[in-house]
């Protein structure tokens, strides 16, 4: 799992309207993603590997989160067990990405065909439930093809760290 301080990309930010034209997700209010092109690292700090037990120790090495940034805990469900939501972190949802951390949900163009029904099921920050992410992970390989890198994706459980 990885801890980072990320800027929130939201309605009203420079480039937001152009992004909505590209991604075509109606009702999207903000983006929370593993994708650093959409949620860039505060002060180019990057992400630090961590365990659930040392999250708060690792946060001390990162920039503080402010009103437009947050501490993101990202769990690759292929490598680590899912974390329960609790008083220390809030589950944001599930993102999908290849090894470059490019979001297959939020940075690979609008979803069409068999993927289109899942657009309506995205939450307010553009993420899926784990169950939907599992279905989409399979569908991406079928509709985009095995040779497409963004179709060969992992499921990331994303949390906002809320207590320190």
**Integer-rounded radius of gyration:** 15 Å
- The amount of helix comes to 10-25%
The gross shape turns out to be globular
Number of DSSP E strands:
7
Task: Name the average pLDDT.
Answer: 93
Distance between the termini: 18 Å
Low-confidence spans: pLDDT under 50, at least 5 residues?
none
What about the largest sheet? 5 strands, antiparallel
- Beta-strand portion reads 15-25%
Helices, by number, come to 4
* Order of helical and strand elements: EEHEEHEEHHE
Sequence of strands across the biggest β-sheet: 4-1-5-7-6
Question: How many domains make up the 3D coordinates?
Answer: 1
Q: Give the structural class.
A: alpha+beta
Describe the overall structure.
The structure is a single chain. The protein starts with a strand and ends with a strand. The protein has four helices and seven strands, in the order ββαββαββααβ. The protein is 20% helix and 23% strand. It has helices spanning 16-23, 55-59, 116-119, 130-144; strands at 2-7, 9-10, 30-31, 47-49, 69-76, 89-97, 154-161. It is α+β, with helices and mostly antiparallel strands and 164 residues long. It is globular, with a radius of gyration of 15 Å. The chain has one domain.
List the helices and strands and how they pair.
Blueprint: E1 2-7, E2 9-10, H1 16-23, E3 30-31, E4 47-49, H2 55-59, E5 69-76, E6 89-97, H3 116-119, H4 130-144, E7 154-161
Antiparallel strand pairs: 1-4, 1-5, 2-3, 5-7, 6-7
